[in-house]
Amino acid sequence: MNDNMIKRAVILAAGVGKRMQPVTFTTPKPLVKVNGKCMIDTVVEALLYNGINEIYVVVGYLKDRFIEWNKKYPNIILIDNPYYETCNNISSLYVARSHLEDCIILDGDQIINNKSIIYPYFDKSGYNVIWRENFTNEWMLETEDDIIKKCHRNGGYHAWQLYSVSRWNKEDGIRLKEHLENEFVNKGNTDIYWDDLAIFCYPNEYNLGIYPMKDGDVVEIDSLAELVEIDSTYNTYLKGEINENFKQKD
């Protein structure tokens, strides 16, 4: 029985995307086109396909590019993150903290290939995951009865890999807002990931589940080399065959 329903979405899109430079010198990572389509467009299309129309996008780096992009989606609300240059992504969720009840939180710099993974009905707060038999250096989860018990930041194998797609019911959304304010404002803890709150800082105050996916349902592109593997048109950047105008200025 599904007791909760996603009513809104928060997409985090404020980061600089340093590992994909020089492509991201002039284009924010979520707006980078992969095989002809911006990564963030695949996220938005999946949300709209599942009837999730209240969408907030947190912007920071090259935010003017998002203002132009926003013309395609006039109902999407942009939220400015003035802390993006000096703080980790906890700052992005902090500025969107008023919209976390019955919410899905996603990164804008990923590709969603299977829209059904955003199915709006859910049992408990938790993360989308993919099972990995072989070692990966991504965040890996230990579970018991499909409940997250522990997370390993430095990778692992024969475990669930955590992805940047998570659902939060009303009660946990309120709790997450309180923890954001406590860590970001009261403690000045600005250099952590927002996911640290429920997984590492306050694990006993949440009961997070998992939502399994198949390999390829979501694709995360973390570097220029990974981008080239998926879209060979960026190969010239990898080889360093770029115009001087794209080089980062001092």
Give an account of the 3D structure.
With 250 residues, the protein is of the alpha/beta class. Helices cover 23% and strands 26% of the residues. It has helices at residues 39-49, 63-69, 90-95, 170-186, 196-201, 224-230, 235-238, and strands spanning 4-5, 8-13, 33-34, 37-38, 55-59, 77-80, 103-107, 110-112, 121-122, 126-132, 140-144, 147-152, 159-168, 209-212, 218-220. The longest helix has 17 residues, at 170-186. The radius of gyration is 18 Å and the shape is globular. 39% of the residues are buried.
Q: What's the number of helices?
A: 7
> For the CA atoms, what is the radius of gyration?
18 Å
Largest sheet: 9 strands, mixed
Overall average residue pLDDT = 94
Approximately how much beta-strand content do the residues carry? Answer: 25-35%
Attribute tags:
two-stranded antiparallel sheet, disordered C terminus, 9-stranded mixed beta sheet, alpha/beta, globular, single chain, 250 residues
